[in-house]
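Batch manifest line 591
LIGAND: 2-acetamido-2-deoxy-beta-D-glucopyranose
JOB: complex structure
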Amino acid sequence: CLSTTLPSVPLTRAHTFYFLFLLFHSSHGDVSFSFPEEMQRGSVIGNLAKDLGLEASALSGRKARINADGSGKRYCDLNARSGELIVADRIDREVLCGNKASCILKQEVVLENPLELHRINLHIQDVNDNAPLFKDDLIDLEIRESAVKGARFVIEEAHDADVGQNSVQQYLLKKNDNFVLSVGGNTVELVLDKELDREKESEMNLLLTALDGGSPRRSVVIHVTVLDANDNAPVFSKAVYKASLPENSPPDTIVINVRATDADEGVNGDVTYDFGHVSGNIISVFSISPVTGEIKVTGVTDFEEKASYEMRVEAKDGLGLTSYAKVIIDITDVNDNAPVINLKSLAYPVAENVSPGTEVGIINVQDRDSEKNGQVRCSIEQNVPFKLVPSIKNYYSLVTTEQLDRELVSDYNITISATDEGSPPLSSSKSVLLSVADINDNPPVFEEQSYSAYVSENNKAGCTLCSVSAQDPDWRQNGTVIYSLLPSEVNGASVSSYVSVNGDTGVIHAVRSFDYEHLRSFQVHVMARDNGSPPLSSNVSVSVFISDVNDNSPQILYPSPEVTRHLRKPQFEPNWPPASIRLISLKQTKH
Ligand SMILES: *[C@@H]1O[C@H](CO)[C@@H](O)[C@H](O)[C@H]1NC(C)=O
Ligand SMILES: *[C@@H]1O[C@H](CO)[C@@H](O)[C@H](O)[C@H]1NC(C)=O
Ligand SMILES: *[C@@H]1O[C@H](CO)[C@@H](O)[C@H](O)[C@H]1NC(C)=O
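JOB STATUS: finished
ARTIFACT:
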């Protein structure tokens, strides 16, 4: 019996042992061979004859044959001519022994004549014929971005059917930004070294390579999907939004659109808009769409009331992270206010004797609009003796341009119009009623240059001789005419003993009966005076002519009345007395 024990040699390089085999002699007639797995059929394992100390020819003579031990499967054969043991079937260490550290196949060789039984131990050496293997080609990992540094994620390890140095020795993780590898015992873990940010990188591929002792290495791609965490608040595109809006813009006019973006996903990134804390009057004027961030007009904007609105807008994501921005809406002026004319003072009435250029009133014009829309021009378009003189800001003086005359125009209805410079312009007008006060500037004027009155003598005292009339266009007492006689004398007596004048009516009456034979005519002067203070007057002359009436009997002056006493009727001599004498004597005898 041969027996040999050899220290086991580490099989670091499988291929160098492919043709190397060692011979063992068991102390009990066992023979051991050590050889690598996966040798080709027919490959020589060893020379059994030699090992058993027999001639090769003896083997066939003694009908040597191999029996499988127990398992019944025969892995080797005997070459009866050469005495060599050769591979009879595929020997795969991993199939036969799994991951056992040593793999020994037991076979028997039987010899006859005499009967001998030798055990053959086939030490199958591992050859690195298996690469490490991951269960799947791709490993999917889902990691929330909120994972903290140091978090560990177990990766299913790689398997390598080979054993010892030929099994998985090492893992390599291709350099990346976030993960490092931790291998301990049987666990392979990814360790988060730098925190993830889905918004920067939502997925990544890591390359993990498993190496066994030999050269075939195997890699696996670890696909990491970074899951969202609500770690981003919405962000407005601007810190301050500015818009301008014409006043009186109709409801639904879009003012501005605010926009905020949220880098998160899904509900974490759904942004809704609202006003921040704002006073009630803004709510009634503007609205914001929660979905689109569109700010619209809902109420009335009036530049003159409020020229600018400032408000906060809020953007909120699904889980309540908020941010704010400011919105400033400037209202621009529209020419929507007509000028308003105010009469600040007015001389009432205006005396007709004021000199041209006298200020009779003060006008103030207001236009609530701004700039051009509020710049006003004022004018009087009628043909009246007044004009507007611009004074200090928005004030105008109403000034006369000519001498007034109440007796021509006693009342003025002055229309003042004001127009602003907007586009289109707005205008308004105001009527100013102005009365002209009377001044006693007109004397009474007689209708005739002079008057004549004819009266027959022997008139009755008190009879009407004629009437005079004077007109005075002034007002009331300034125009009230009073007639009177201007004192004078007629025939040495006061005129008032001849005639009188009715002060109110201008009717002239005879005060006495006139006698043609005594007074044939006379002249009086009548004054018309108004009641002003001081009064004005004018004079007119009235000539009174007295006509004759046959009121005297003839009287005989010669011869003496005794002569004529005998005569019943005047008896005229044809030639005496001569007619001229008779006429003269008639006149002379008038009483
Ligand atoms: C003054 O004139 C205006 C416009 O012409 C008119 O409407 C108004 O009635 C007038 N006023 C008087 C008192 O006549
Ligand atoms: C008459 O004229 C005077 C000035 O001459 C004036 O003061 C007065 O008010 C006038 N009277 C009336 C009734 O207008
Ligand atoms: C009228 O006559 C009176 C008396 O002679 C005189 O005082 C007055 O001035 C006269 N008036 C006019 C207008 O001539």
